[in-house]
Structure formats: C-alpha cells, structure tokens
Amino acid sequence: MSIASKSLDNRSALRQRRRSLSARQQRHAATAISRHLRQLQAFQRAQRIAYYLANDGEISPHIAIDRAEKRGQHIYLPVLHPLKHNRLYFTSHRNQPELCTNRFGIAEPRLKRNPVAPVWTLDIILLPLVGFDRYGNRMGMGGGFYDRTLARLNNSDLKRPLLIGLAHHCQEVEQLQAQNWDIPLDIIATDRELICIKNNIKNRPST
Asked: Domain holding 154: CATH number?
C-alpha cells in the first residue's frame, strides 16, 4: 500500500473516531477545551483570535470563544479565498453576523460584509485537527488550506500567530510523517490536556 493510501485510510479512521462521539461527550469536550485555553496567558491576553465552527465531529471552541468575545477580544472566522486555490481569508465575526454556506457545506461569514484580517495581524489561530502527534505535526482534512494560507509567514519578517490545534484526545497518533510544506503547531489542546510542542521536540526520538 502506498504512503498516500495509508494516509487516506488513517484520515478516514480518525474522522470516524471523532464522529462516533456522542452529543454528551462533545459537550463535555467543549467545556474541557475552554477550561484548558483559560489556563493560557497568551489566550487571555490576545486581542485578535481566529477560530472555526465545528464540523464533522470536530471539537468545538465555541464556549472559549463566547467568553473571549464578552471580554472584548476580536474574533475571526476562516472564509474560502474566492480567487486563490485552497487558501483562506480571516474575517471579523463580531456579534454573530449572518453566515452563508461554502462549497463544502460549512458556514462562514459573508466576505463582502466583514473586515478581513491579514494572517500576520492575528495573535492566535485555533486550528481543527483530524489527527496529531506530540511533536506539532497535524493531519487536516487534506486540502492544505491552513498550510497554504500560513506559508507566506515562513522565512519572512512578518509576525507569526500562535498556532493552537484543538482535538479530542482520541485523535492522537504516535507520530505523523511531516512534509516540507507542513506548518507545525505551537500548542495542542485536547479535552484532557495542554501539550506544549517546544518541550516535546527536545525529546523527540530520532528516525
């Protein structure tokens, strides 16, 4: 079996794993994620936070984001770029403006009605995960949207937002194969714990 086929099988299995969680388990997970994010000073101090609307069994950051908005922090949602392939804009989502549905059936703000924040102006981006390991590697849905969107920040003087991946603990794998274009995470928050990637990389086993 090719590496691509194995990756596809792993992605399918991990997506099914998170989809199999009950509504009660999802609610508890969202509460736990909010509690863990509150422990991060960077999250409490951030002025501009990008998040996502949970879909396909993803763990939801909505409790943490609701509280952030009440504190006066500015929140943003990803919108599919209308011109550039597999890239995202981040648009303001204050006061629950009207949403529309993109080509994947995911709700997003209407691009023409909301201010766009360049990625380097964001303090934190919360990313959904299909799978993750403890060295900052993430498996997404396969489209490479976040990697392409963040690629401009590599080898540049632009500010890099703190990248926090959110996932259910059952989405952890021992080790993912990193690609040259992958953008590593800084922190992973699960329903069980916060994982600081910098500390784990120091003790990463050689391959």
From this structure: 3.40.50.10420
Q: Which two tokens stand for residue 27?
A: 């609610």
Q: Which two tokens stand for residue 90?
A: 């981040």
pTM: 0.88
Q: Which two tokens stand for residue 1?
A: 């079996």
Residue 172 belongs to some domain of the structure? yes
C-alpha span between 132 and 170 (Å, rounded):
10
Rounded CA separation 171/23 (Å): 17
Q: What is the pLDDT of residues 142-201, one digit of tens each?
A: 778 888 888 878 767 888 999 999 999 999 999 898 777 778 899 999 999 999 997 654
Identify whether 14 is part of a domain.
yes
Amino acid code (one letter) for 101 = T
Cβ contacts of 7 within 8 Å, gap of 6 or more: 139, 177
Domain with 195, as residue range(s), is 3-202
Q: What is the CA radius of gyration of the chain?
A: 16
Residue 207: inside a domain, yes or no?
no
Q: State how many domains the chain has.
A: 1
Q: Looking at 16-30, 78-92, 137-151, which range is the least confident one? A: 78-92
